[in-house]
Amino acid sequence: MASFAWAMYANAIPHKSHRVDLTPIHWEAKKAIFGSAARFDEINDKLGWFKKELDGVKGWHASGWELTAEGRRIATIYFSKFHSKLTTSNAKLVAGLIDASGSPFRIPRDAFRSTTASGAKCRFPRGVMRSLVEVNTQNLKDTCQAAERWLNGDSFPEYLCWLKNHWSEYERCYGYQKTKARVKLALNQANVMLDISYQRRGEGTFVPTIYSESKAGRLYAMGHVNLQLCVREVRRLALQGCYDIDIENCHWSLLSQMAMRVGIDSPNISYYLNNKKLLRNEIAQFAGITVDDAKFVLISIIYGAVLQCRGCFDIFDYKKNAIEAKLGKEVVERLASHPVLLSLLNDLKAARRGVVDYYKGQTRKKGGVVVNNAGREINSTYSQTKILSHILQGAESEAMLVMIEELKDNIVLLQHDGVTVKMKPDLGELERMIQDKTGFSLSLEAKLL
């Protein structure tokens, strides 16, 4: 029950309905922990911690849950007592995580789960990454205090002026209520990360993080609460002093090179790759959104999101309607009139068709499947959008495999298209290794957190 409470309190996994207040809890998760979904419902009826706000739809999304007033009250009391103990030098914290069955949680040495989501053997190397991510607990405490000051309208600490500016920009674009929800989310996630980091016995404050390889080959941190899923400001403060090493415009760059190999010209994609900051800023100002959300728009369209709003009788599709669901109809209507964005979409459609046809042709002998660069299969009857996502994620994961093998113990946390490391590596050498081993020319950028 506590694991579900933490999931909803941190609300780190977005629900596919794009309702920001909901956390997806699948019936299989309830069955795995309680023996049956009905047993969970029986216990919850007595405690009154959670309420289901949205029924699951088979093949589309899991049920959407949120904490009740009683559940949130208990969590708030818990964290109040927790912070009180942190500020009292002679107070002893009760350490020791437990698993879902109530047994002591055994933290595995290796960061990678041995099998993939489909039951195949994980192809990522064993023993190269620890499963423990060390976090800066003082910064997490400061995040909680700063968030509470913002919510109460109190003066903000000067050394966190960048955080105040970040939330001010968010408020300028989306208004007070949405910013209030964002600040509360950062507060709750920092609280949960802080609590988990103190639960491990022994020296140091760490968050256990295990990764599972998806059906396409991408690595995802497991569980509802982990740093990979936290909002950017929480992750930045928790890992301050480390470096984010990102593959610049990973999927657009891969698509451009794949299209070029099959003889498809994509000048508008090339323009974006050569002018990414300019175009992102232009889109952000044009649509009245943040630069981070402009990035979201650009990555969403490659995954199949459309720049048109649903009609009143249209069925919601969490990928197709992702931009409308997150940013609203007015933003979509403004974006739909942006000339460069529309030209980019035309290039995308032509490149998608050509690349998918090529990969289908390469794997036709297998019959009924398309195989990506990571050797992972997808049914060839799926839509071109879904198959392209599978292809791009496979190529991305091959680049990630090179980075993991080369950087090894230097890695702190994995992102989807990059890594967070303790020491800044030689980016030029790493780019050469990626090209030699994958055949793709990808640019890396380093940001000090």
Task: Tell me the helix content.
Answer: 40-55%
Mean pLDDT reading: 89
Spatial ordering of strands, largest sheet: 11-12-8-13
Structural class: alpha+beta
- Residue ranges: pLDDT <50 for 5 or more in a row? none
The total count of strands amounts to 13
Rg (CA only): 22 Å
Tell me what you see in this structure.
By secondary structure, the chain is an alpha+beta fold. 49% of the residues lie in helices and 11% in strands. It is built from 17 helices and 13 strands. The protein has a four-stranded antiparallel β-sheet with strand order 11-12-8-13, with helices on one face. Strands 1-3-2 form a three-stranded antiparallel β-sheet. The longest helix is centred in the C-terminal third of the chain and has 24 residues. It is globular, with a radius of gyration of 22 Å. The model has no long low-confidence stretch (mean pLDDT 89).
Quick overview:
The chain is of the alpha+beta class.
Topology readout:
Layout: H1 2-10, E1 23-25, H2 27-34, H3 37-47, E2 50-54, E3 63-67, H4 69-86, E4 132-134, H5 137-152, H6 161-174, H7 176-197, E5 206-208, E6 211-213, E7 219-221, H8 232-238, E8 243-247, H9 250-261, H10 267-274, H11 276-287, H12 291-302, H13 322-327, H14 329-335, H15 339-362, E9 369-371, E10 377-379, H16 384-407, E11 411-414, E12 418-421, H17 427-438, E13 444-448
Keywords:
449 residues; alpha+beta; 4-stranded antiparallel beta sheet; 3-stranded antiparallel beta sheet; 49% helix; 11% strand; globular
